[in-house]
Structure formats: C-alpha cells, structure tokens
Amino acid sequence: MTDRSAFDEFVNARSSALARTAWLLTGNHHTAEDLVQHALLQTARHWERISTSPEAYARRVMYHQNISWWRKRRFTETALGSYDEPHAPHDSDLRLTLDAALAQLTPKQRTILVLRFFEDLTEVQTADAVGVSVSTVKSTTRHALARLRTLAPDLVEAES
Amino acid sequence: MTLHDELGLLADTAPRPTIDHTLWDQGRALRRRDRLVTSALVLAMVVVLGGVAALVLSPQRSVDPADGPVPNGAIPSRILDVGKVGLGETDLAIGRASVAFNSESTNLPIVVGASDGRYHHLDMSAPLALALSPDGLRLAYAIPDRIHIADLETGDVLVFPHNGGRAARVTSLLWQADSARVTWQGTDDAGEGVAGTVDLAGPSEYLHPIERTIATGVGSPARTLAALPTRDNQASALFVRPARPRVGVDSDDEEKVRRALPTDLYPDGASVRPLGWAAADLVLAEVDAPAGSYVEGRHLALFTSPDRPESEWTYRIVMRDLPDVDVSIAVDLIPDLDGTSTQQLTHDFGEPEVPGDSPWRDRLPAILGGLAALLAGLAFIRMLQRQ
C-alpha cells in the first residue's frame, strides 16, 4: 500500500470521528471543519515521521491548533442554534442545555472538559495536549464542572 | 447518563465534514518546502560557520619580500589606476608611501603604501598637482590657491600660501632630493608663468623666474646637476650643470649636458620626464617611447647621469605599462645598483588591495551580517509554519 492510499484510507475511516471531537471543541460547524482539515493536512505533511498512529497524531494536532486559534482569538464563540443539521436529541431539553452550557464556558474550560470526559484523556495527557500544568487541568476541570452545575442543573443530576 | 455519554450524543450531532481530496498533495508540497527551508538553513549555517572559521583561522596577509627584507618599504612592481572603491580616506597618516598619482577615472589622489602596497584613495578635492617626496614621507598637492604639504606619518597638513601669498594656479610640483624643498610652477592671475620653491627647513619660499632650470629641473643630491624633462621623441635625456657650483640658486650660466638614450631600445628616441634621483648619479625617469621601441609607451627607467664616465653608464627598465597619468615616486626606496643591496628594484605586492575592495575579507562582516539576517528570517518563517 502506498503512502497516499494509506492516507486516503485513514481519512475515509476516521474523519468523522475527528469531526465529532472538533465539533465539541469548537461548537461551530465551519471552525470544526477547518480544524479537521488542518489536522489532516499536517498529517499528510508529516506522514513518514509519524511514529504513533495517524489518528493519534491528527487528534494531537487538533488539540494544539484549537488552543492556538483560541489564543489568537480566531475562535469566536457562537450563539445557540448556529450549527447546521441538528440531529434529533435523545433528550432534547437536556441536550440543548448541554450545548448552551458548553458555549458559556471559556475555550480553555471547554477544551479540557472535552479532552477529559469525551476523549477520556488522563490529567497528564490533557495537560500535555493543552500545554498547561496538571494542576491547571485539575483546577480548570473543577471550575468547568461547577459552571456546568450552575448552567445545567439537570446535567448535574444526570451526572450524579 | 454520564457526562461522557452526553458529550457523545452531542458529538453525534456534528455535521459530516467535507474533506478536501487534495489534502495529500497539499501536504506533500508543504513537506517539500520544509525540506528546502531546512536545507537553506543548514547551508546558511555552514556558510556562516565556514566564513567565521576562515576569518579566524586564515593567516593575516603579509608582505613577502622578493629578495631579502624590505625594512622601509619598496616601489611596487606594477602601478594600476584601479579607480575608487568604497569611501575615500580623510586621515593622511598612512605611513611611508611609494607612489602617488591622480586617478584618471576618479580624478582623486591615490597613494600606495610603501610597506604593504595598499592603495589609499584620498578623500579630497581634485588637486591640480601632486608630488610625493623622495623619502615617501611627505605629499605635496596643490588645491587652487594653496599648496598643501601633508606629513604622511602624523597626518598633519601644512597649508602654504605660495607665490608670496598672491596665489597662482599650480601646474606642477617637484620635490628636490633632500625631501625638504618642493618646487612649484604655475600661472598667476595675469596668465604669466611663475615659479617658486617652498623650503620646509629654511626660508619659507623663494621665487625665481620660470625660465630658470630650477623651476623645471630635478636637482641631484649634491645639487651639481639638474635633470630636465624633454618633449617629443629625442635621442637623449637632458641635464644642466650650472656655472655656479650649486643648483638651487638662480643661475644665468648653465651648461647643457646630454645623456644618450640606448638606441637599441629607442631607435626613434623617447620623451623623458625625470622623477627624482635614486642616488647621487642615478636618475629615475618616466620614459614615453613611440611604437617600434623595445618598450613602447610609458614606463619607468633608471639610468646613470652624465657625471658617471660613459663606460659606467647603465640603463635599466624598472617598470612597464605605467597608467596614463603622471606618477610621483619615492625614489629613495630604489636600492643602489652597486650590488650592495639584496633588494630588487621593485617588489611584487600582488594585486593592489584597496580598503573596502577585498573580495570577501573586508566585506565579510557585511556578508556574515546578511547571512545572519537570512538565518533569522528563515527561522521566523519556520516558526510561522509550525504555528
């Protein structure tokens, strides 16, 4: 299998999964798509240098790039209802609340929350991905969850 | 339902991404650019390090004597009108010089260092006349109404109001053999020819009629003979011996004495312009020979004066292919021909080195600075790419 075909196979298989993470990180359709495109571009650029799996590399690129955009203020918070093609929620009231609650978090809080509770990264892995200390990850996680309790009490009940 | 599950359900609402199918090509293009940038960075680093190493490790340029030592300098084996490169020098403390002339291309003075052969372009108004003292330590030059005499060891300049302060347009300057007197010729405001001698040691100036040979001739060290210039192609060099014992005093009685030029070298004669006395009976002159001569064009020749018996006359070509300008030579730097000196008549200093003209040595700081800036720029581009 050539490098190009291997890359194409990877993109076909995992781009949707990457897009889900990107969506959670950004909350914006266009920004999420940009994030995925950027991650895949970098993966193609450094294909022969990737020692881990391409997906792990692409995700790492997404985490870093999201933080970089956020620091450059390129990432803009979007209002509720700006995303396209909303899927029918299992619990529609709770889902909207979660989406709206996430939008109320800071980009850093949102990113750490997604990495910890969706990507299931450890505190150390999260700290490395975001470029902060482990103690910052712990404190940010604590603050983000407290914020969610305030914004979405139903979620807190569901979590508990 | 846990937060993980809720996030998972929210993630399920993510739109399916539209992936650009040229991503692989774009990525590989970026990869190729990365390699070029890295190669350029490495190359620039190698060049910078190599240049620094060459600068630090290369031996300093030194004057290699042709034969034996040259403690007080030498006449270069070639004189080239190299033109002006870089800025002219304003500090005249350049040390003993061997040659001085007005550059035809820039009309600015060039003085050649006696010990290193370096060409010094002097940043000054174009002088009307220029003359280097026989010992190479003083430079006389005339800028409209003043004669300047520069001490090349200290850089001090004596500004002399010649012609008794009435000034005159100087057309020629000629040092006497003692390097303490310089004779000038020129025209006054009325257009009349005037001449005088500035004496740095004794009376400041004495004037004399333009017709006197002192005004045009170069006196021998003993002041018993004066070499005169000749025009047109003549078969001999011209000297005068005053009736009075010493040249340098206005003399009405003079005996013209001729020294025949070698006919095998100059079958059709030549023009001679004496530059100075290298010894008591040895004259250095600029000879201009017509086509068909053994040495055509302008060249330097050293020959014995008529004071030597004809059997002891000698004639040596010192330097060929003089530039088409009037040169002034520090004749004291020419060794005797009596076999007591191991020094050659001239010294090969190599290609004339002009301050600011070195192909890389003098420009190396600028080159290194440019490369450092290039490295910094490439590193900045690299940083942007990583972002």
Nutshell version of this structure?
With 160 residues, chain A is an all-alpha fold.
Task: Give the N-to-C terminal Cα separation of chain B.
Answer: 38 Å
What proportion of the residues of chain A is helical, as a percent range?
over 70%
Return residue spans of chain A where pLDDT drops below 50 for at least 5 consecutive residues.
74-90
Rg measurement of chain A, Å: 16 Å
Distance between the termini of chain A: 48 Å
The value of Rg of chain B in angstroms is 33 Å
What is the oligomeric state here? Answer: heterodimer
Most extensive protein-chain contact, per-chain counts: A-B, 48 and 28 residues
- The succession of helices and strands of chain A, N to C, reads HHHHHHHH
Q: What gross morphology of chain A would you assign?
A: elongated
Supply the helix-strand structural class of chain B.
alpha+beta
Mean pLDDT figure of chain A? 80
The largest sheet of chain B is:
4 strands, antiparallel
Give the tally of β-strands of chain A. Answer: 0
- Per DSSP E runs of 2 or more residues, the count of β-strands of chain B stands at 22
| Element string of chain B (H = helix, E = strand) | HHEEEEEEEEEEEEHEEEEEEEEEEH
What's the number of helices of chain A? 8
